[in-house]
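Quick illustration, no need to memorize.
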Amino acid sequence: MTEQQQISRTQAWLESLRPKTLPLAFAAIIVGTALAWWQGYFDPLVALLALITAGLLQILSNLANDYGDAVKGSDKPDRIGPLRGMQKGIITRQEMKRALIITVVLICISGLALVAVACHTLTDFVGFLILGGLSIIAAITYTVGNRPYGYIGLGDISVLVFFGWLSVMGSWYLQAHTLIPALILPATACGLLATAVLNINNLRDINSDRENGKNTLVVRLGDVNARRYHACLLLARCSVWRCLICSRYTVRGDGCLFWLRRYSSNRRAM
């Protein structure tokens, strides 16, 4: 293999891994961890393992997305977005399968380390093992399988759940070991922003997805309504953050930030 060919293969794998998407996976973990730190329950090892696991899950999703779309013929050379390694013929199906298996193994290692360090009860340990397994399944079956949910317009709700609610509340819980109502607002805000990122990508691919039978929510809504939906996602996200911020100044003191402050005071008094 020549040096130029090696560079091409390296570039192809980087394009499939899509490292630029990692901040999206990290953002919700950072929010949950920041809230835990604010309340005095920051655990650097738990936070690090959560970030590693989230990053690996994002990489798994990226690789599985390339594999599933390539196998189903959804990603063709005439698509608007960048061509991936499998589209170019540089990465074979067998190589991508091997990469998927390796990534799943790494996720299992980091995930087991995370729950072993963070979970103090058997219930928590088993619960987070189940959530981890569901996360792996969700990352793969978005485009892979006989009936991938990304092809029937369910990708948006999955992103809201896994990139919002589960990531923020999960990273908080693993450090504070309780759940409180206040967390729903920052978790929803993160999920809505991640959903908006998915929506803008699907808007870019609307024509090719429609031609190849990939019925994303954008395809189902149509171009005009999908753009309106995108505006609604962004407005909803801003509204949620505003509710969270304004709750700090409520006269009655029953806002979400009050819940956090009260929880912190109660814990320290114990």
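The chain has one domain: 3-265.
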